[in-house]
Design brief:
The structure is a single chain. With 233 residues, the protein is of the alpha+beta class. The protein folds into three domains: 57 residues, no CATH class; 35 residues, no CATH class; 109 residues, SCP2 sterol-binding domain (Nonspecific Lipid-transfer Protein, Chain A), CATH 3.30.1050. Helices cover 29% and strands 21% of the residues. It has eleven helices and ten strands. The strands form three sheets. The chain has a five-stranded mixed sheet. Strand 6 and strand 7 form a beta hairpin. The longest helix is centred in the middle third of the chain and has 11 residues.
Length: 233
């Protein structure tokens, strides 16, 4: 939605020349494309705020469809390649949709897989960090070798008693940090101060924070994912 561009999908149920003569005449009449057109027009209207949705339309019936993801099962430690036997043994949990969730976009749908990569307690980093000390240490935490070709401004807006606004500019292999808002940030990251510290220390998974509403991202969603790659505390 960066440029107010919204994308939705319609799965039309309509009669065509391929089905003419196959479907009963009365049913074919009910499946005219004209019965799909109102949904198309509505989704194109300025008043429509929907984005990333799937809708069925045909014969006067309109409803929303969704792709859901089951909780699944973690096989091994996320490093060993599972065997075919592992898949067979865990098939019940793999194919189960009990407790399935619908995700707002493809990035959020990666959350279950990304949790495999979350730091374990013994791998957690950062020690006794505060919001201020994090931004003070960003130049030292910057991974220059990971920044080739990156040109981005990361705006951080943190709520809470230790919160505030900072922006981090990564360009030409360098990194600068300034307090306050930037005129045109590439991406804006909003969090509570405590959650931000937990995220940096590896105690809070970014994808889980995003899908759980603790992390809100505006602007370029894909660029926001570079934060974990570019900075290591």
């Amino acid at each position: 939605e960066k440029h107010n561009i919204k994308v939705n999908t319609i799965t039309p149920i309509a009669g065509t020349r391929l089905t003419e003569g196959v479907l009963p005449g009365e049913l074919f009449e009910r499946l005219k494309p004209e019965f799909v057109a109102p949904m198309v027009l509505y989704l194109c209207a300025e008043a429509c705020a929907e984005n990333g949705m799937i809708f069925n339309a045909g014969a006067g019936l309109f409803n929303r469809a969704a792709v859901v993801t089951g909780p699944g099962v973690l096989i091994g430690d996320g490093k060993r390649v599972p065997t075919v036997e592992d898949i067979h043994k865990n098939w019940g949990a793999i194919q189960s949709l009990s407790g399935a969730g619908e995700y707002p976009n493809a990035v959020a749908a990666y959350a279950p897989m990304m949790s495999v990569l979350s730091p374990k307690p013994e791998e957690q980093r950062g020690g006794d960090l505060t919001v201020k000390s994090i931004f003070d240490r960003i130049p030292q935490a910057f991974q220059k070798d990971k920044a080739a070709g990156v040109d981005a401004v990361f705006q951080f807006v943190l709520s809470g008693p230790d919160g505030g606004s900072w922006h981090v500019t990564v360009k030409d292999g360098g990194c600068t940090v300034k307090e306050g808002p930037h005129d045109r940030p590439t991406t804006t990251i909003r969090m509570a101060d405590e959650d931000f510290v937990k995220l940096i220390k590896g105690e809070l998974n970014a994808m889980k924070a995003y899908t759980g509403g603790k992390l809100k991202i505006e602007g370029d969603l894909m660029k926001s994912q570079l934060v974990e790659k570019l900075f290591r505390f």
